[in-house]
Amino acid sequence: MKETTKGTTAVKTNGEGLKIRIYPDPVLKMPATPVERFDSELSSFIDEMRRAMALREGVGLAAPQVGVSKKIAIIDYHDVFYVLINPRLLEQEGEQEGEEGCLSFPGIYAAVKRPARVQVSAQDVTGVDRVYDVEGFTARAFLHEMDHLEGKLFIEHLSTLKRGMIRKKMRKRAIGEDN
């Protein structure tokens, strides 16, 4: 495994692309820092994130999930690709409940309540400010990935009992006891 630390990101690869961090990896609980440099290295990193997400048939991915504590998230849903750099929630309304999963919690799904519509401001890969007004599943995906950037996991939206069961299962997997 090699590590590069030049420029915007520190990326660890094993020759097969970015490695998805699995709970209980501590990087998943760390708030990410803002991106300040918008350069070709950032663009390449986002391309690598997109490949890693597609390989695992994901809809969204945040940089902390690949071990990079920067405020970068991507979402690819219904042939629309969103890049959210330094995102901020501007508005939210309504409520929806739906099943969520996470590449950092393979095979785990749970019903989570989220706002039905959100408006988010974020920079794109070139640093240009964009405002997105999204609803339904896309709003859910935006909020899920934005939570990652704050060190918050989707299981934190669940009851204490359900969260505890998932944590126990994931810890057993981490030490190889869950078959």
Question: What are the main properties of this structure?
Answer:
single chain; 179 residues; alpha+beta; Peptide Deformylase; five-stranded antiparallel sheet; two-stranded antiparallel ribbon; 3 helices; 34% strand; disordered N terminus
What's the CATH superfamily, by name?
Peptide deformylase
Strand content bin: 25-35%
Number of helices: 3
Q: What's the CATH C level?
A: Alpha Beta
Main sheet makeup: 5 strands, antiparallel
Could you describe the 3D structure shown?
With 179 residues, the protein is of the alpha+beta class. The chain has a single domain, classed as Alpha-Beta Complex (Peptide Deformylase). It is 25% helix and 34% strand. The chain contains three helices and nine strands. It has a five-stranded antiparallel sheet, with helices on both faces. A hairpin with a 6-residue loop joins strand 1 and strand 2.
Brief characterization of the structure:
By secondary structure, this protein is of the alpha+beta class.
Map the helices and strands:
Blueprint: E1 2-4, E2 11-13, H1 40-55, E3 60-62, E4 72-77, E5 80-93, E6 96-102, E7 105-114, E8 117-123, E9 129-135, H2 136-149, H3 160-174
Antiparallel strand pairs: 1-2, 3-4, 4-5, 5-8, 6-7, 8-9
